[in-house]
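hey so u asked for the seq, here:
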Amino acid sequence: MKIDLHLHTWPKSQCSTIEPADLVKEAEKIGLDAICITEHQVLWSQAEIEALAGSSSVKIFSANEITT
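ran it, structure tokens below
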């Protein structure tokens, strides 16, 4: 199983320029089985994750990168 465990998206993380839907498409394109969207100080809700996943074959998880 291929999983990328640390990804950011725009506009929830300022260090990224990729839109969430484009991230999912790219993950499918390169053959990832799952991704974990790890934003700065923001945790995606389960409803947001489910809406983003749609009919994608890629499993999506949410994490939070905390600045200390």
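The CA atoms of residues 8 and 15 lie 7 Å apart. The mean pLDDT is 96.
lmk if thats what u needed
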